[in-house]
Specification:
By secondary structure, the chain is mostly helical. It has a domain at 46-128: Cytochrome Bc1 Complex, Chain D, domain 2, CATH 1.10.760. The protein is 45% helix and 3% strand. It contains 5 helices and 2 strands. Strands 1-2 form a two-stranded antiparallel sheet. Strand 1 (102-103) and strand 2 form a beta hairpin. Helix 2 (55-64) crosses helix 5. The longest helix has 20 residues, at 2-21. It is elongated.
Length: 128
């Protein structure tokens, strides 16, 4: 019985990871003639770090991009790293790189809009 419960728990965990941190993105190439778009959700403009960020918009982006499914609603880390003081470890530019391209188990391009990506990186970079 314990083995069955453990198997069900692991299955639910895997389903949660797939649903919260990825899945099929329409920007990935459907045919071999689109390799330049592979892994890029926003090919029209590079994200930049704003001098002044909008914290409310950044928090909305955090929720909309399902960051909380791995990093927790309180940002203390559910399955992913704790982000409450991430600005003390990484610069906003480094955070932007991680948000854009992913790192470890985190996929990139969960935030498609380049302005929102830059705003999120600036806000996270301010958390120390």
């Amino acid at each position: 019985m314990k083995r069955l419960i453990k198997l069900l728990f692991m299955t639910m965990l895997v389903i949660g990871l797939i649903a919260g941190c990825g899945g099929q993105d329409e920007t990935f190439p459907k045919t071999p003639d689109e390799p330049e778009k592979a892994g890029r959700a926003d090919t029209e403009g590079e994200a930049t770090i704003p001098v002044v960020f909008d914290e409310d918009t950044a928090k909305e982006t955090y929720v909309a991009a399902t960051c909380s499914s791995c990093h927790g609603a309180d940002m203390t880390g559910a399955m992913g790293p704790n982000l409450t003081a991430i600005g003390g470890k990484y610069s906003p530019e480094e955070i932007l790189e991680i948000v854009t391209n992913g790192r470890g188990g985190m996929p990139g391009n969960l935030v498609e809009d380049s302005d929102a990506r830059g705003n999120l990186a600036a806000w996270l970079g301010s958390l120390k």
